[in-house]
Structures are given as structure tokens and as C-alpha cells.
């Protein structure tokens, strides 16, 4: 194993991976998607030798009706009773339908006790309201679905609600925005626990970007473009095709046939971030692809992705990914090689 691989593994994961237990709570009226997301993400995380990095339990009563947009979809029977969640390292509270029964007081007690004992607690979408009822969000930053952030702020004035965030990591208590933002939060947790290479592998398995740019403000319904304004889709496509060029705000505004001021406003409305931040995110994503799929030297990757110099590329990549480009490539290939070897052993 090379020195670079040893370095990145020391940074991104423990030498002997700790198998963490994740309890996903299932209540009557649970949102089916929110329930499935943590099960899928955490069950997709493996050490290079094929060892699962998480043990996932679904905990709840014997009979649970799962919902989608408030519509009853199917019944499920959790494998574990609620009390088993008390021994988990991480507890996930999915969203609930609006007309779902109130969560029982013993559930709130379980969550409070878990936090006192050092467990990590996550909520997805409107699961934040359960954490709020337990008093776990008081004095903390938090978010929920953009349609519900105002209601959460009014109901719990001690909570610092962040309406634009896809997720909020407040240390021991983490919250996500609506529905698909639960994916972002769970991949973030994997990244925090086991490093960017494992998180990128998980994200690839669930077919999502390792990190999404912008907050949930981009998903709020905005007025349609006014006279002379257009959707940014063609402009974003053009930017992706010209990542290698030293694009400026003026270049992008000219392509979008608008002023720099209007360009910034439209990016905030439609994408949830600024043009240059979106460009940096796209360049780092392209760099990840090249580091994973080619043998190009780091200097060539920097050139193809439009970074002014290898030094700038290394700094920006490390800032976004947590490791250097060389370390990321080494860790990715180490994981891929170990996984192939493990599959070959299992096939024998």
C-alpha cells in the first residue's frame, strides 16, 4: 500500500472500521420515502474488505401504515421493537404525514435519553417536528421541508430555523429539508464517519452527486421568468461544456443575454447559489470523475477542469472534498480494488 493510500485512509476512516448501529424509527403515518432513504444509504456503506460499516434496524410497533404525500400506501412490520433503538449509535426520525397520530410520549423520552447518553439523532423532512417536541432543537440550528419552515419557527421560537438549508449539522442533532434532502444528510453523515471516498462510493451507488450545490431555496416555487428572461438550463449546459475555460461573471452573463446583476439574482432564484459557486462545484465534480476514471496527472486534471494552476486546484479540491486530489484518487482505487478482490473471493 502506498504512502498516499495510508495517509488518506488514516484521514478518511479508522484503521479498523467501527460498525455503527443506526435505528430508523417507523411510526403510523411515516413517509415511506423518508423511511427508505437512511436504510438504503447506510446499508450501502462498506469497508474495502466488504465489511458493512453500519447495522441498520427499523424500530417501531408491529403494524405501521406508510404514506406518500398523505396517501396510505402500504403496511409494514418493523423487525425491531421501539425499545431496541435505545442501544443505537444513531437514531433517524423520518417525516410523518400531516394527519398522522401524534408520536407517543415514550418516543420523545427515548430521544431525549439517547441524546443525553451521547447518541446522534437525525430527522428527515417533517421529522424535525418530532425532535422539536422532544425539546432537542431548542437553541440549535435546524431545518425542515421548505413548506414547513415557517410553521416550525412559529411553533418553536427557540429553534434557529434555517429555511434555505438542505441539511443542518448542529453536532449531535442533525436535520434535513424535505424528501430527497434526506439523501444529502445521510451521505453527509457517512462522509463525517468514514471520509469522502466511502461517501462518494455510497453516493454513486444511490445515483446522486456526493454533494449538491445550493440550498432548498432553489426548490421553492418562484414566479416564472419575466419578459426577456429565460430558464438557466441552456446556460448551465454551456458552462458544463466550457469548464476548461477561465469563465468570468461577464462571460456567463453575456451567454445568458443578461446583466451580471440579473444573472446573480436568477441563479439565486433558480439554482440556489451564485454563478461562481455553481461553477466551482461543477469543476470539482468533473475533477472527481477524471480522478476516478483516468490516469491523467493532477496537473492535466486541473487544466481540463479550468483551475488556474495545480496549486489552486489542490486547494479548492481539498476544501470541497476534505482530501487532496492524489489522496482521493488513491483511496477510490484502493476501495475499488479491495471490493473486486472481495467479490472474487466470494465467487470461488
UniProtKB/TrEMBL annotation:
GO terms for molecular function: DNA-binding transcription factor activity; sequence-specific DNA binding. Coiled coil: none annotated. Keywords: DNA-binding, Transcription, Transcription regulation. The keyword Transcription regulation applies. Residues 233-331 form the HTH araC/xylS-type domain. PANTHER family: ARAC-FAMILY TRANSCRIPTIONAL REGULATOR, HTH-TYPE TRANSCRIPTIONAL REGULATOR RV1931C. This is Transcriptional regulator GlxA family with amidase domain.
Amino acid at each position: 500500500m502506498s504512502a498516499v493510500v495510508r495517509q488518506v485512509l488514516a484521514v478518511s476512516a479508522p484503521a479498523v472500521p467501527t460498525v455503527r448501529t443506526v435505528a430508523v424509527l417507523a411510526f403510523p403515518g411515516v413517509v415511506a420515502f423518508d423511511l427508505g432513504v437512511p436504510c438504503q444509504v447506510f446499508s450501502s456503506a462498506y469497508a474495502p474488505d466488504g465489511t458493512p460499516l453500519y447495522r441498520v434496524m427499523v424500530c417501531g410497533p408491529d403494524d405501521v401504515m406508510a404514506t406518500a404525500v398523505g396517501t396510505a400506501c402500504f403496511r409494514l412490520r418493523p423487525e425491531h421493537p421501539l425499545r431496541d433503538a435505545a442501544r443505537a449509535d444513531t437514531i433517524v426520525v423520518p417525516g410523518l404525514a400531516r394527519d398522522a397520530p401524534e408520536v407517543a410520549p415514550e418516543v420523545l423520552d427515548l430521544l431525549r435519553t439517547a441524546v443525553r447518553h451521547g447518541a446522534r439523532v437525525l430527522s428527515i423532512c417533517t421529522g424535525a417536528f418530532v425532535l422539536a417536541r422532544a425539546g432537542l432543537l431548542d437553541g440549535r440550528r435546524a431545518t425542515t421541508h421548505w413548506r414547513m419552515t415557517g410553521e416550525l419557527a412559529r411553533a418553536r421560537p427557540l429553534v434557529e430555523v434555517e429555511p434555505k438549508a438542505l441539511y443542518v449539522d448542529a453536532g449531535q442533532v442533525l436535520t434535513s429539508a424535505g424528501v430527497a434532502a434526506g439523501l444529502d444528510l445521510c451521505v453527509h453523515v457517512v462522509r463525517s464517519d468514514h471520509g469522502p471516498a466511502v461517501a462518494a462510493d455510497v453516493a454513486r451507488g444511490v445515483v446522486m452527486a456526493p454533494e449538491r450545490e445550493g440550498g432548498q431555496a432553489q426548490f421553492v416555487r418562484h414566479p416564472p421568468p419575466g419578459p426577456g428572461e429565460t430558464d438557466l438550463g441552456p446556460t448551465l449546459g454551456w458552462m458544463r461544456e466550457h469548464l476548461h475555460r477561465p469563465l468570468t461573471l461577464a462571460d456567463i452573463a453575456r451567454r445568458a443575454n443578461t446583466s451580471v446583476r440579473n444573472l446573480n439574482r436568477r441563479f439565486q432564484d433558480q439554482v440556489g447559489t451564485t454563478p461562481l459557486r455553481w461553477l466551482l462545484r461543477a469543476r470539482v465534480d468533473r475533477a472527481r470523475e477524471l480522478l476516478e476514471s483516468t490516469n491523467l496527472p493532477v496537473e492535466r486534471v486541473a487544466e481540463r477542469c479550468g483551475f488556474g494552476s495545480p496549486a489552486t486546484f489542490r486547494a479548492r479540491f481539498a476544501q470541497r472534498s476534505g482530501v487532496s486530489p492524489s489522496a482521493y484518487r488513491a483511496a477510490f482505487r484502493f476501495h475499488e480494488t479491495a471490493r473486486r478482490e472481495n467479490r472474487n473471493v466470494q465467487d470461488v
